[in-house]
Amino acid sequence: MDKLSKIVILLVIYSIFLSIGYIKYYGERPINKLPTTSCCRSDSNTTSAKKGKLFLDKKSSDMNKFILPIKSNSKNKSSMPIITSNNGRGRKFPRRKKKRFFYWGELKQTMRFLPLGSTFDTNTGERVIFNRVPKCGSRTVLDIFKYLANRNQYNMISSTIYGPLHLPENKKALIKELILATEPPVLFQRHMHFLSFPNSSRVRYINIIRDPIERFISEYYFIRFGDDRNPMNFVGTDGEKFQTINECVLKRRPECSGNRLQYIIPFFCGHSPQCSLLNSSIPLEMAKANIERSFVTVGLLDEIEDTFAVLEKALPRLFQGATAEIVRRQKQKKSKQFQTKSKVMPTEEVNKIILKEMYWEYQLYDYVKERFKNQKKTLGIKR
């Protein structure tokens, strides 16, 4: 027997087995419509009637596995919605929620993929900007905001662009257009300096800051070593990578002097040229004015639970459930993955140099702490 004949015989045998399996599987599956008793009973043939009854009982038993009971009037304990079919039978399955979290690469042509609501009145609805300051716990916060977007069903747009912080005119116009065109309620987040709107009541801000020196140290070492979630590829020599913050400050390196030590104020001052002035009270006063006018709250990283408590009371539509979620995550120690590695604390000498150059930063920090304390008292938050 040649090779071709063997292949043909094997194919025939395989086809036979496949046919037997098909008949066995589909022949015993429940049918959509049960036969009536009249078709299965006959006065002239008692044996056929008995066989018909057995067939009916078997089919009915099998179909019980597939047909759900008719929806009753009793109170439904499940939170899942009931979708009722045309024949009156209900099926329980979770209704698919509308997508609420979006990444955006800050391109005009990709705005159409975002939840734009062009028919909405731009004077109504909650539009909130989180112009987050780097290394102030914002990644932990964003994880919770993303969770809350699905829980509370608001739109959250997260920019994938991390710079520049000081926006050019075309980028400012694009971000303004997006925020005013998105269906509210919406939360937009990006690292950026304060951006003013023609009517400040249309858009409100939130932010979180921390002790300026602690923030500076965390950023310095994060650029070099990252954390458990984000290992960094430092751009520079090994000597520069392993240079301690003490050496950097004493040698007056660019990343450890000048506007790198007056870093937080522009996030609240804005894009005015005056916001870049060093050793001046003008940026500080402008920042304070913007905070009073546009920021719902400026929380503190070392009081993160209270910060979420304030957000929950001040903006319940967006942040209901925030406090419980941050407590749950802290118990699970999930925030540990965002802690910067290999930090070396500055010496007392270096600490004094930094503190002197950060005088205006600490003026803002103290102002924010006092405002936050009063805000908690007003909202009745006691911890």
What's the total count of β strands? Answer: 8
First-residue to last-residue Cα separation = 90 Å
Largest sheet data? 6 strands, parallel
CATH class: Alpha Beta
Report the CATH superfamily: P-loop containing nucleotide triphosphate hydrolases
Q: How much of the polypeptide forms β-strand, as a percent range?
A: 5-15%
Radius of gyration: 33 Å
The class by helix and strand makeup works out as alpha/beta
How would you describe the overall organization of this protein?
By secondary structure, this protein is an alpha/beta fold. It has helices spanning 3-27, 46-63, 138-152, 169-181, 212-225, 238-241, 245-250, 266-269, 282-294, 304-314, 316-319, 322-331, 348-357, 359-379, and strands at 82-84, 90-92, 101-104, 127-130, 155-159, 186-189, 204-209, 295-300. The chain has one domain (101-379): Rossmann fold (3-Layer(aba) Sandwich), CATH 3.40.50.300. The chain has 14 helices and eight strands. Strands 3-5-6-4-7-8 form a six-stranded parallel beta sheet. The termini are far apart.
Topology at a glance:
Blueprint: H1 3-27, H2 46-63, E1 82-84, E2 90-92, E3 101-104, E4 127-130, H3 138-152, E5 155-159, H4 169-181, E6 186-189, E7 204-209, H5 212-225, H6 238-241, H7 245-250, H8 266-269, H9 282-294, E8 295-300, H10 304-314, H11 316-319, H12 322-331, H13 348-357, H14 359-379
Parallel strand pairs: 3-5, 4-6, 4-7, 5-6, 7-8
Antiparallel strand pairs: 1-2
Helix pairs in contact: 10-12
